[in-house]
């Protein structure tokens, strides 16, 4: 894998991606941040050697490089999921490549369902901790020790310095920002009433189908990471309604300006 990572990074650098400082992974329906970037170069995933290709219709599948808040950033517009048939190593390969390109911080966003019924759709949740329910680990492969410590510590998976800054920004900007635990499941089906009750019992505040693999690998690489969930539906098992993907995407779009504000000001604050 190390050889593949180096080959991928060399190709991307040849496309003008020079010394990015911050990596950003944009989740489902979360693309408005791209409009704030002074784009220098972009490349489709299917043109990048050894890179997976996005298969979900609302995932764009581009790697974008440019300037945001005075910093060089590399942005994944579209991410990969277990439910698309990828392995956990495939899903996290871009994180390893971005680290090889030189990023010093990683920011992640996702769309998720609110298990904590004090949280409402259209609001944001800063992830403080997570529960991995995807049935595997992106570190469980032969030779992983050549890329980082096999037995990676996960006692503080999300960077406390960046998380503190994010909370301060939300306060100043009058943005509702919850803080909680994110549970990552395989999908693509949404949860049953019994599963929502289970997730609530084990301490989850929100549930989604991404983020945790990328965060595990960021910790493996000793790469500081923060993640924010856009809450797109409310998972009340006693009043559960059929899923409406269009409504989920609409609420993601509604929350995007606040997410964009937080990410822009956070990047501006990074030294």
Question: What does this molecule look like?
Answer:
This protein has 271 residues and is α/β, with parallel strands linked by helices. The protein has a single domain (2-269), classed as Rossmann fold. It has helices at residues 2-14, 88-101, 160-172, 193-201, 212-220, 245-269, and strands at residues 22-26, 38-44, 62-68, 71-77, 105-114, 124-132, 177-184, 206-208, 225-234. Strand 6, helix 3 (160-172) and strand 7 (177-184) form a beta-alpha-beta unit. Helix 1 crosses helix 2 (88-101).
Question: Outline of this structure?
Answer:
This protein has 271 residues and is of the alpha/beta class. It contains six helices and nine strands; from the N terminus they run αββββαββαβαβαβα.
Strand content: 15-25%
Under CATH, the homologous superfamily reads Nucleoside phosphorylase domain
Low-pLDDT runs of 5+ residues are: none
CATH topology: Rossmann fold
What is the count of β-strands? 9
Give Rg in angstroms. 17 Å
Order of helices and strands: HEEEEHEEHEHEHEH
In which range does the helix fraction lie?
Answer: 25-40%
Kindly, what is the distance between the CA atoms of the first and last residues, rounded to a whole number of angstroms? 31 Å
Strand order of the largest sheet: 5-8-7-6-9
**Largest sheet entry:** 5 strands, mixed, barrel
Sheet/helix structural class? alpha/beta
Q: If helices are DSSP runs of H or I spanning 4 or more residues, what is the number of helices?
A: 6
Number of domains: 1
Average pLDDT rating: 94
CATH C-level: Alpha Beta
Examine the secondary-structure arrangement and name the CATH architecture: 3-Layer(aba) Sandwich
Task: Describe the global form.
Answer: globular
Family: Belongs to the PNP/MTAP phosphorylase family.
Protein name: Purine nucleoside phosphorylase
EC number: 2.4.2.1
Keywords: Glycosyltransferase, Transferase
């Amino acid at each position: 894998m190390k050889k593949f990572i180096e080959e991928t990074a060399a190709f991307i650098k040849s496309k003008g991606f020079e010394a990015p400082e911050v990596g950003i992974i944009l989740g489902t329906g979360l693309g408005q941040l791209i409009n704030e970037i002074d784009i220098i170069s972009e490349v489709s995933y299917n043109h990048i050697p050894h890179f997976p290709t996005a298969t979900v219709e609302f995932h764009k599948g581009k790697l974008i490089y440019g300037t945001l808040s005075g910093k060089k950033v590399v942005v994944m517009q579209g991410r990969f999921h277990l439910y698309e048939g990828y392995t956990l190593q495939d899903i996290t390969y871009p994180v390893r490549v971005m680290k090889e390109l030189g990023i010093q911080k990683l920011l992640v966003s996702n769309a998720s369902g609110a298990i904590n019924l004090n949280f409402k759709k259209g609001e944001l949740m800063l992830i403080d901790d997570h529960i991995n329910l995807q049935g595997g680990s992106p570190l469980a492969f032969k030779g992983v020790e050549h890329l980082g410590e096999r037995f990676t510590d996960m006692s503080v998976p999300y960077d406390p310095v960046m998380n503190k800054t994010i909370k301060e920004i939300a306060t100043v900007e009058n943005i509702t920002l919850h803080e909680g635990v994110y549970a990552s499941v395989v999908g693509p089906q949404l949860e049953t009433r019994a599963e929502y009750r289970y997730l609530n019992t084990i301490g989850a505040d929100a549930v989604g189908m991404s983020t945790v693999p990328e965060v595990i690998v960021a910790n493996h690489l000793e790469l500081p990471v923060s993640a924010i969930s856009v809450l797109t539906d409310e998972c009340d098992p006693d009043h559960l309604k059929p899923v409406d993907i269009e409504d989920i995407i609409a609420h993601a779009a509604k929350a995007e300006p606040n997410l964009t504000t937080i990410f822009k000001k956070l990047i501006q604050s990074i030294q």
